[in-house]
Amino acid sequence: MRRLSIACLLVAGGGAYLAPGFGVFTTRLEPKTAASFDAYVQKREQAIERRGRGSAFLWSEEAPGRAAQLKNGGVVVDGSVPGAVVSIPDGLIHDWSGAAFLPGATVESTLAVLQDYNNHKQFFQPEVVDSRLKWREGDRFRPFLRLRKEKILTVVLNTDYDVTYERIGGDRVYSKSYSTRIAELEGDRERPPGDDHGFLWRLYAYWRLEQKDGGTYVECETISLSRPIPALLRGVITPIVRELPRESLEKTLLNIRRHVKPAGSARLR
Q1: How many alpha carbons fall within 13 Å on the CB side of residue 268?
Q2: Which residues, in sequence order, are CB contacts of 157 under 8 Å at separation 6+?
């Protein structure tokens, strides 16, 4: 099932390929790069599906200290795979996971924020500068987001998604999110998708919500695709490319925690 929470859309996988004395060159998304990304996602989704439908539902409970950090008000973000960045032909895959705990929140109060796509431009500033829900049928949504990514340089992207939520029992929600179109803006003009600077070509997101312990755990894994780093800029730009997706996911989870309102105690377990 398909699902995309705009919250997670903020976790852009690309970086900014600019350093003093260098320009930013356009590039194309090659078929072999897209095919390699699809193959990675297919393999990775097998593990994601097992978690989403299994007894070991929460990533945050997998390692000692994660759940304790969340209970103390922290946000945990780490690579979903060792290193969090995977090189493929003419591209980079960025794979991160993050979690937050929302004291007093229910699954319903959390979904009220995640599914309010028309207001994501208020909830997730400054990275979401515009948002609207284009279509909905039941638990399937098709939202639009205009994303603004800033790290050395500024990139603005028009993005569309196919998002589906699935309830697993009364206290869990599992979802998948897929970008269906990402177009980079130059002024008011869109560049053709896949024929641009390669900051973000794909953005998939996977959410898990579980209500327990007097609140709701919110987890998100993002898998995104960007161009590789030009060799001349590798030493300068590599840390930025690796850190930007992590920082974006952390900000997203903090904003969710800020905007989800606690529910009445009678509704909490």
Answers
A1: 17
A2: 12, 146, 147, 149, 182, 183, 184, 185, 199, 200
pLDDT per residue as tens, the chain (269 positions): 333 343 343 333 443 333 333 345 788 999 999 999 999 999 999 999 888 887 889 999 888 788 888 988 889 999 998 889 999 999 999 999 999 999 999 999 999 999 999 999 999 999 999 999 999 999 999 999 999 987 777 889 999 999 999 999 889 999 999 999 999 998 889 999 999 888 899 999 999 999 999 999 999 999 999 988 777 666 656 666 677 788 889 999 999 999 998 876 434 44
Distance between CA 90 and CA 107 in Å, rounded? Answer: 40
User: How distant is the alpha carbon of residue 201 from its chain centre?
Assistant: 13
**CATH class given for the domain over 6-267:** alpha beta
pTM of the model: 0.87
